[in-house]
Design brief:
- The chain is α/β, with parallel strands linked by helices.
- It folds into 3 domains: 44-154 and 196-356, Response regulator (Rossmann fold, 3-Layer(aba) Sandwich); 157-192, no CATH class; 381-532, Glucose Oxidase, domain 1 (3-Layer(bba) Sandwich), CATH 3.50.30.80.
- It is 34% helix and 12% strand.
- It is built from 21 helices and 14 strands.
- The chain has helices spanning 14-17, 22-33, 38-41, 63-76, 102-115, 130-141, 167-177, 183-192, 205-216, 231-250, 254-257, 260-273, 278-289, 296-301, 320-325, 328-335, 352-356, 416-422, 459-462, 523-532, 543-551; strands at residues 46-51, 80-85, 120-125, 145-149, 156-158, 161-163, 381-385, 388-394, 405-413, 435-438, 471-473, 485-487, 507-511, 516-519.
- The strands form 3 sheets. The chain has an 8-stranded mixed β-sheet.
- Helix 5 (102-115) packs parallel to helix 6, helix 9 packs parallel to helix 13 (278-289) and helix 12 (260-273) packs antiparallel against helix 13.
- The longest helix has 20 residues, at 231-250.
Length: 578
């Protein structure tokens, strides 16, 4: 699949800068207006550095400095770096959810690359939706690109205890609701749980997706788990800058890297990592942008891969900093190499097999062997039945074992505000056997499919010592979350999926091993309820939300816009230069 090495005349940027015509004059003169000289661009690859830094994105706070390290590497290799800011999706602050805007960032990236005089790109991301969005957009643009992960933050600390972002927040919040944690303790946890730049250091969605980016072959080997505060991260940034210049000369595009084999590797690595449930939605979307038909069945096909990364929340003790120093992703992939397609190519021009050949595990409790796993089956399971005919997802590696097979009455909430208002009431009619249901929280209903799927345990049960129960929703949940949470129910309730027909008191049966989820209500009764169901009013009447609601796909199809998927129409051509 290799291409002849490009010459300066073959560079895409030369279409803007080389012609001896009036338009070429305009491009060159305006470049020189900014202080550039012909020596800066003539015969050199022009590299877009897509930076998702902002003042309100803590995961990317260090990107203001790291972009200079990337530029240094590009200059060292004989390229010209141009920083192009892109939409910054701050997971903690964007409401109702960053998932509403993942596709907007993907469109931003695709059009930035298509419309500017650039030959390739370095993609800077890390926070949950940023990784898939950047890769989706760059894949559709088709230029050589390399991904630079933000890196996990350092371990949290409170009273000598190691804190993991998200996972320990949920755990200690329940203890506070139960009256076991004081206000001062809670404040001290707030100040100690996130103490450096970088994204969540648990195996949440951020670490999952950067690991997937590496497993697909879109980062330098070992890049995904380097802590943001480690000097190795700076060096990785500069090396990525140097490598993209060579990738441009080699014409090593995403299409040559992101093959079916690459995505199968990514799914199997995700399972071994104890990945976030969000991986399913994002990988499906990424693969279909690359023209690879990946679906829920591909995740089920990888369910035999055991969890060998002992990292919270599937693991009990360790965090991403420990994982990196134990050998990082190359060491994990070496441990599970029998499950991988080792000839898949990566951004450094070498195969997966070559990249992991010398990797070593330095702590075999953090990165386990296949015969000593954290969890013997796959991290994720896809359930189907009359409640979710198009599928739903559970993370059995992070839920109480006794709840993997459960039968109980439903307690239904039609929306998040009503659930939040009721969940702490002492008179709520609920037991630990109930199945909590939140609906109208999917792609259309949320809108944007917020991370509401880890429904809080009712306060009266928390006080009784209950810490897990079955919860079902068409929402997502944070990758740092845990528990018997069944998510991504498709089709969603908002468009008339079976979840819309459930009533409080209906019996629901869940069997993870059998991969089934059933609503035990006669079909005739369900038909009557379906006939009486009234569709909700549209959420948006204008703008991006209007476009979103008309073109968003369901969770089992990756929640991409229909018109952005490869199968929708012919690829967009190169811009005309008049």
């Amino acid at each position: 699949m290799s291409s002849p090495r490009k010459t300066p005349a073959d560079l895409r940027s030369a279409r803007w800068f080389a012609p001896d015509d009036l338009r070429g004059f305009g491009h060159r003169s305006r470049f020189m207006q900014m202080g550039y000289a012909p020596e800066d661009w003539k015969g050199k690859p022009v590299v877009a550095v897509i930076n998702t830094w902002s003042d309100i994105n803590p995961c990317h706070a260090h990107f203001k400095q790291r972009v200079e390290d990337i530029k240094r590497g590009i200059l060292q290799a004989g390229g010209l770096p141009l920083e192009l800011p892109a939409l910054s999706l701050a997971e903690q602050y964007v409401k109702p959810t960053t998932m509403l805007y993942r596709n907007m960032l993907a469109m931003d990236v695709e059009e930035l690359l298509r419309s500017h005089p650039v030959d390739g790109a370095v993609l800077m991301g890390g926070c949950d939706k940023t990784t898939p969005a950047l890769l989706m957009g760059a894949t559709s643009a088709g230029l050589p690109c390399i991904y630079v992960p933000a890196g996990p933050m350092l371990r949290g600390n409170w009273k000598g205890k190691i804190l993991g972002s998200g996972s320990d927040a949920w755990k200690f919040w329940d203890e506070r609701r139960a009256g076991n944690i004081s206000d001062q303790d809670w404040f001290n946890i707030e100040t100690g749980i996130a103490r450096s730049d970088g994204h969540c250091m648990t195996m949440g969605t951020a670490s999952t997706m950067t690991a997937i980016a590496e497993a697909i072959g879109m980062t330098l080997p070992g890049a995904s788990s380097i802590p943001a505060a480690d000097a190795n991260h700076i060096r990785m940034c500069a090396e990525s800058g140097r490598r993209i210049v060579e990738m441009i000369w080699e014409d090593l595009t995403p299409a040559k890297i992101q093959t079916r084999a690459a995505f199968e590797n990514a799914i199997r690595v995700a399972m071994a990592m104890g990945c976030s449930t969000n991986a399913i939605i994002h990988v499906i979307a990424q693969a279909r942008r690359a023209g690879v038909e990946i679906g829920l069945d591909d995740f089920e096909a990888a369910a035999h891969v055991p969890v060998i990364a002992n990292v919270r929340p599937s693991g009990e003790q360790y965090l991403m900093e420990d994982f990196y120093y134990a050998g990082g992703l190359p060491a994990l992939m070496r441990q599970m190499q029998q499950h991988l397609k080792l000839d898949a190519v990566t951004v450094n021009g070498k195969s997966v097999g070559e990249n992991i050949a010398r990797a070593k595990v330095y702590n075999d409790d953090v990165i386990r062997s296949l015969d000593n796993p954290v969890y013997a089956a796959g991290a994720l399971a896809v359930l189907k039945g009359n409640l979710a005919p198009d599928g739903c997802v559970i993370k059995p590696s992070a839920c109480a074992p006794h709840l993997r097979k459960h039968r109980g009455p439903a307690l239904v909430f039609d929306d998040y505000p009503s659930m939040k208002a009721a969940i702490d009431r002492d008179d709520l009619d609920v037991t630990a056997d109930h199945v909590l249901i939140l609906r109208n929280a999917g792609p259309q209903g949320g809108p944007g499919m917020p991370e509401w799927g880890m429904l809080p345990i009712p306060k009266k049960l928390v006080k009784q010592g209950v810490r897990d129960m079955v919860r079902i929703s068409d929402a997502r949940m944070s990758g740092t979350s845990y528990g018997a949470c069944i998510l991504h129910v498709a089709p969603e309730a908002y468009i008339g999926g079976p979840l819309a027909l459930v009533r409080t008191g209906d019996i629901i049966s869940v069997d993870v091993e059998a991969r089934s989820i059933m609503l035990d209500v006669p079909e005739a009764e369900l038909a009557a309820r379906r006939k009486a169901w009234v569709p909700p009013q549209p959420r948006f009447e204008r703008g991006y939300g209007w476009m979103f609601s008309r073109h968003i796909r369901q969770a089992n199809d990756g929640c991409d816009f229909d018109f952005l998927q490869t199968s929708f129409g012919a690829p967009t051509g190169e811009p005309a230069i008049f």
